[in-house]
Amino acid sequence: MDPFSPEFVGLPFPKDVADIVICSHGHEDHNNKEAITGPVKRTETFVIESEGEYEIGGVEFSCIKTSHDKTNGAERGKNLVTVVRDGTLTICHLGDLGQKLTDAQIERLGDIDVLMIPVGGVYTINAEEAMELINEISPSLVIPMHYKVDGLKEE
What we know:
Layout lengths: L5 H4 L6 E2 L2 E3 L13 E3 L7 E3 L3 E5 L2 E9 L10 E8 L4 E4 L9 H7 L4 E5 L8 H11 L3 E5 L10
Parallel strand pairs: 1-3, 2-4, 8-9, 9-10
Antiparallel strand pairs: 5-6, 6-7, 7-8
């Protein structure tokens, strides 16, 4: 999910293989498909980067278009929220969510076991907004993402 460009981000990203790649939006810190060198079990890597419903190898993907900012995408464009269901576990990756989700969008997510949520602010929702959303979604486990770490490029 969201392979990044190490040159853009400043952190290492090893070349790797994947059957499925999900890109929440076209920015360099979320759309480095070239870092994925091939599939594992498929003949080619399947890339998900648009809203819709997908079923690949018995795994369901539900992708909802949201905004990367609080101005309906006018500043940074759109963002893709992806829910992955394999029958035993449901994971939701919020990408670079920059807006509060509507009640209808939260309803579409369904029951979430693992929520991957941005918390860094500036380009995404901030920690306080993330906590509000976590309380609304009520996942079993939360993985915070998109925050500043040592080695990250400032710009």
